[in-house]
Amino acid sequence: MGRSPCCEKAHTNKGAWTKEEDQRLIDYIRVHGEGCWRSLPKAAGLLRCGKSCRLRWINYLRPDLKRGNFTEEEDELIIKLHSLLGNKWSLIAGRLPGRTDNEIKNYWNTHIKRKLVSRGIDPQTHRPLNEITTTTTTTVLTPAATISHLDFSSNNSSLPSLPVSKLNLMKNSQTNNTYNYNNINNFSTTAITVPTLNYPKIEPLEDVNCTSSGTTTEEEPPQQIVQQQKQDKFDESELNLELSIGLRPVQTESTRVSSANTAESKLQQVHGGFNQLFGTVQSAMVAQAVCLCCQLGYQSSNSTELCMNCKNSNGLYRYYRPLNS
DNA sequence: AAATAGTACAACCGCACTCCG
DNA sequence: TCGGAGTGCGGTTGTACTATT
């Protein structure tokens, strides 16, 4: 049994929007605001599907959209973000104020792909097209590798089984037991050092060997939480806003030392689950996050005034409507 | 000038996720 | 806890426009 269609297809217009339809939609949203897209068409007197209205508004009619050509800076930012996030267009769009996911996706497919190919770079992997082997220090499952399962349970009673989904994990090839976790909210990399004997069972959905700009924390003490300051400036070489955490190898009760300021104590605080640890780390990351557009100077560079991104508590730019404000 | 090929992008489709009763 | 409604997302398609022959 399939789900019901989103609208009565029989009595809806399809295809390009007319000026009148646009105006009706704009007028309606100006008065009533966004929301309840299913009932909106009828209320606004539009013979359109609610989804169609939503798409038209979000991708074309919103007043805060930045129309026009992409700048060189935007190009480079999209490339960097794509290398980190893959085809997560909405996330990429969240970092480009005034641009929509659809617009970026189209632009990627029509311009940037070709641009990268002409530079000799594979648009999907962001590796040189003619590269056969790699000598870089980090092996990455895929630019946005998805790990289906992370399991500490077999040899370790203090850490739970970890049904970790959709983490961007990169295995550090130099330190066999370190994984880098790409935090998509603020582009930081979290190095997770796991006990050698309790090596996590990684089941990558895709096995794509490629390189990355991910950083390692091999020389840092394993139990130390090191939160490096973000780079003030968008670096041409890489988006390296590093936050590192190393998990101490499993210890017996007798050897366990508690300290309020150590990573170990943090671990103990979150013994209810590794997911909680990620939640804690992520929260810290987000709390510290300064949006990229501010770093880049796209938005207000005035230090006393946060841009819309930074005003948004989750660190991600989302659509904002100045209509009724 | 007409036909054809290539390009750009708006719009659609279907799936997945979240929310709420 | 479950199921349906609403919404968001990524991939794909359709079509208008431009360049080339």
UniProtKB/TrEMBL annotation:
It is found in: Nucleus. This is Uncharacterized protein. Residues 208-230 are annotated as: Disordered. SUPFAM superfamilies: Homeodomain-like. One of its GO terms (molecular function) is transcription cis-regulatory region binding. PANTHER family: F14D16.11-RELATED. Keywords: DNA-binding, Nucleus, Repeat, Transcription, Transcription regulation. GO terms for cellular component: nucleus. Gene3D superfamilies: Homeodomain-like (1.10.10.60). Residues 9-61, 62-112 form the Myb-like domain. InterPro entries: Homeodomain-like_sf (IPR009057), Myb_dom (IPR017930), Myb_TF_plants (IPR015495), SANT/Myb (IPR001005). Residues 9-61, 62-116 form the HTH myb-type domain. Pfam families: Myb_DNA-binding. Its main location: nucleus.
